[in-house]
Design goal:
Elements lengths: L29 E2 L3 E5 L9 E4 L2 E2 L8 E4 L4 E3 L4 E4 L9 E7 L4 E9 L8 H5 L19 E4 L8 E5 L10 E6 L10 E3 L5 E4 L10 E9 L5 E13 L13 E6 L7 E4 L16 E8 L8 E3 L5 E4 L15 E9 L9 E11 L7 E2 L3 E7 L4 E6 L1 E2 L11 E7 L6 E5 L6 E5 L10 E10 L14 E9 L6 E2 L4 E6 L7 E4 L2 E2 L9 E7 L5 E3 L5 E4 L14 E10 L6 E11 L7 E3 L2 E5 L6 E8 L11 E4 L9 E5 L4 E6 L6 E10 L7 E14 L2 E3 L6 E2 L2 H14 L1
Parallel strand pairs: 2-9, 10-16, 17-23, 25-32, 34-41, 43-49, 48-51
Antiparallel strand pairs: 1-4, 3-7, 5-8, 6-7, 8-9, 11-14, 12-15, 13-14, 15-16, 18-21, 19-22, 20-21, 22-23, 24-27, 26-30, 28-31, 29-30, 31-32, 33-36, 35-39, 37-40, 38-39, 40-41, 42-44, 44-47, 45-48, 46-47, 48-49, 49-50
């Protein structure tokens, strides 16, 4: 058997070319000339022939149809290319697509001198302008299939054909790839006997733009004889998507007074169509401006870039004279390079005219008047200003300063954030007797600096005249507080001091009377005429009304005004200690076991309300312990404590032991306190003091009790 000659495959779509050796075919399907060059005229005239195209499918051109890439042109049945209307610019390239049931091809018209308004389909379709790929040694040539998207019924529709010039009998064609046996499945299929490739449904370029398929021939058992050969199906874009603005809201800002041509913002739309064609070539324009004053054309948009710029003079862009500092523009984006047949989409651009500090604040009047009573504090007057700038900015907010007339810092001024007024306040009470009038010079500025060509003028300063009103002020004690030092326990009626109060109202001749206001212990009296303070009771440093040896009393000084005014003075009496308190012991009850080996009973402490040196060291003694009854002992531990102990064990009972304690004062003071000692039974870790029996007295106590009984007989 002779070796089989190689398989020849050729896919026909955008062009169908039956490729075999030159001696096999005399006719080549397609355009006889595939590239034309024509000069850009001043204008393409409606129905005037531009050139003639010659196409043949080598089978009589039955059902021949032409499609032109521009909607402003058509190809007549005789191949003549004409314009549908007068038009000046169509771009640099036109493409003409010719198709019959047997073949199709693409011709390119290069317009010399034309504007670049669309991309070359050569880049999109990867389609060579010359004849298909030259034959290789194995005679396999593949050209891409071009199918317009959005085709209508009927389906399936033949779109190409695979040719094998030397195919063995009973061999079959097989088509594979995404769109055939891979998702999305079933879009393309091939006639296994004739090699015709067909599409079964409408294609959408925006979903899939290119399908990569593979063609091979197989024997009756499905074994591959030749291939696979790659077959590329390219979906030709149609203008089926409107431009959309996806990045809104669109808000821009421009400073008032900006120069003409200032860029405000950029608006760009998106078109899902092929970006290399006019289908996605967008042009922008402003459809509407609201408000339309002071000019209906305040802004311009770059048709290609989408940049919005100002087109009015800076004087018209004055925020303070505009009806509304906010403009809304309806922006339209149109594909097909802005031609009438293009699809459109719109969005709203909001442009805010921002304020700059080109107006200084001005006082509403040059002079302000205020009155205030002496001694009072708080706001006395509100200073009003006018400012034409934006109230929400620092170009409007005012800052006030007192520049003269406030040497004592008695006044302060602050800005009311709601009204922008200057609130002038008295912070240190004024004295009518010192000065009845004050004059302040106040300036106002903005928080933000003024623009260079604007400055603060005379209207940015104002004078405030303040009148101080005389009021009846209360008398003032001097000194205050008043302080004296006295020993406690001084005799009743002792004079402590004479208070002194003066009336600040020096221009009024008023008398002053005195009275006691607060005297917690009731120890004091004051002469209402001359202010002499004396005692009405004994002063006691240890009184609960005395704090840290200081007694506090308050006095009133009342003038003769109408109504009378009152002043308050404080007297602090420091009381020196006198040894007038005897010491006392603690505790006064103790317990001890009757069989205790340790005869210590209790540790006693002593305390004294007086101050040192009238307190410790203390002297501890057992008062009048008879010699036969000496079973107790007291021993000094330190200056404030002593140990009471037994000299022998005692029977279970209660005992009263008189303890005498003496302080170190001069003269000293002594106190005798009974210490109750309970002698308890202590057995098996249990202490029982309840059966201690009757109270037992020491021997001296028994003797005294006997003498008392005899005296009563």
């Amino acid at each position: 058997m002779q070796p089989r000659t190689p398989l020849v495959l050729c896919v026909l779509l955008s062009q169908v070319l039956l490729l075999t050796s030159a001696e096999d075919l005399d006719c080549t399907p397609g355009f006889q000339q595939k590239v034309f060059h024509i000069n850009q005229p001043a204008e393409f005239i409606e129905d005037q022939s531009i050139l003639n195209l010659t196409f043949s499918d080598c089978k009589g051109n039955d059902k021949l149809r032409y499609e032109v890439s521009s909607p402003y042109f058509k190809v007549n049945s005789d191949g003549g290319l004409v314009a549908l209307r007068n038009i000046t610019a169509v771009g640099k390239t036109l493409f003409v697509h010719a198709r019959t049931p047997h073949a199709e091809d693409m011709a390119e018209l290069v317009i010399v001198g034309g504007r670049d308004i669309q991309g070359s389909l050569q880049d999109i379709f990867k389609f060579a302008r010359t004849s298909p790929v030259p034959r290789q040694k194995r005679s396999i040539v593949v050209s891409p299939i071009l199918i317009p998207e959005n085709q209508r019924q009927p389906f399936p529709r033949d779109v190409g054909k695979v040719v094998d010039s030397d195919r063995p009998e009973r061999s079959k064609f097989r088509l594979t790839g995404k769109g055939v046996d891979q998702e999305p499945k079933g879009i393309f299929r091939i006639n296994e006997n004739t090699g015709s490739v067909s599409v079964t449904r409408t294609l959408d370029r925006e979903v899939i733009a290119v399908y990569q398929l593979f063609v091979e021939t197989t024997d009756v058992n499905g074994k591959t004889l030749e291939g696979p050969v790659p077959l590329e199906v390219i979906v030709i874009d149609q203008n089926d998507n409107r431009p959309i603005f996806r990045e809104g809201p669109y808000i821009g800002h421009v400073m008032e007074g900006s120069p003409t041509g200032t860029t405000v913002m950029r608006m760009t739309a998106f078109d899902a169509d092929d970006p290399a064609t006019d289908n996605a070539l967008l042009r922008y324009n402003i459809r509407q401006q609201t408000p339309d004053k002071p000019s209906p054309n305040m802004f311009y948009i770059d048709p290609e870039k989408g940049d919005i710029v100002t087109v009015v003079s800076p004087a018209l862009l004055d925020r303070e004279t505009l009806e509304n500092p906010k403009y809304e523009l309806i922006i339209e984006a149109q594909d097909m390079a802005g031609l009438d047949v293009g699809l459109t989409g719109t969005a709203t651009a909001t442009i805010m005219i921002d304020d700059k500090n080109d107006h200084s604040p001005k006082f509403t009047k040059k002079e302000f008047q205020a009155t205030v009573e002496e001694g009072a504090v708080g706001v006395i007057v509100n200073l009003t200003v006018e400012d034409k700038d934006d109230p929400t900015t620092g170009a409007w907010r005012a800052a006030y300063t007192i520049i003269n007339g406030n040497p004592g810092q008695s006044f302060e001024i602050h800005t009311n954030p709601q009204t922008n007024e200057g609130m002038l306040s008295v912070v240190k009470p004024l004295d009518y007797e010192i000065s009845a009038f004050h004059t302040l010079l106040i300036k106002v500025e903005n928080e933000d600096p003024l623009v260079p060509d604007v400055s603060y003028g005379p209207s940015s300063t104002a004078t405030v005249h303040i009148t101080v009103l005389d009021v009846n002020e209360g008398p003032v004690f001097y000194p205050d507080p008043m302080m004296v030092t006295r020993q406690e326990n001084i005799s009743v009626g002792s004079v402590l001091l004479t208070v002194n109060a003066t009336d600040p109202d020096s221009l009024q001749h008023q008398t002053i009377r005195y009275s006691v206001y607060k005297d917690p212990a009731g120890w004091l009296n004051i002469n209402p005429i001359n202010g002499t303070v004396d005692t009405t009771a004994v002063l006691d440093r240890e009184s609960p009304f005395v704090d840290n040896s200081v007694y506090t009393a308050l006095f009133l000084a009342i003038d003769s005004g109408n109504p009378p005014a009152t002043g308050t003075g404080t007297l602090l009496i420091t009381l020196e200690d006198v040894n007038d308190n005897a010491p006392f012991i603690y505790p006064t009850v103790a317990e001890v076991c009757d069989d205790a080996k340790n005869l210590s009973v209790v540790i006693l402490g002593a305390s004294d309300k007086d101050l040192h040196p009238n307190t410790d060291p203390f002297k501890f003694e057992i008062h009048k312990q008879a010699v036969p009854d000496k079973v107790w002992k007291i021993s000094k531990i330190n200056n404030t404590h002593a140990l009471v102990s037994l000299l022998q064990n005692l029977n279970k009972a209660n005992y009263n032991l008189p303890i005498m304690v003496t302080d170190s004062g001069k003269p000293p003071m002594t106190n005798i306190t009974d210490l109750r000692v309970q002698v308890c039974s202590c057995r098996n870790s249990k202490v029982d003091c309840n059966a201690a029996g009757a109270l037992r007295f020491s021997l001296p106590s028994l003797l005294l009790l006997s003498l008392f009984s005899l005296a009563c007989l």
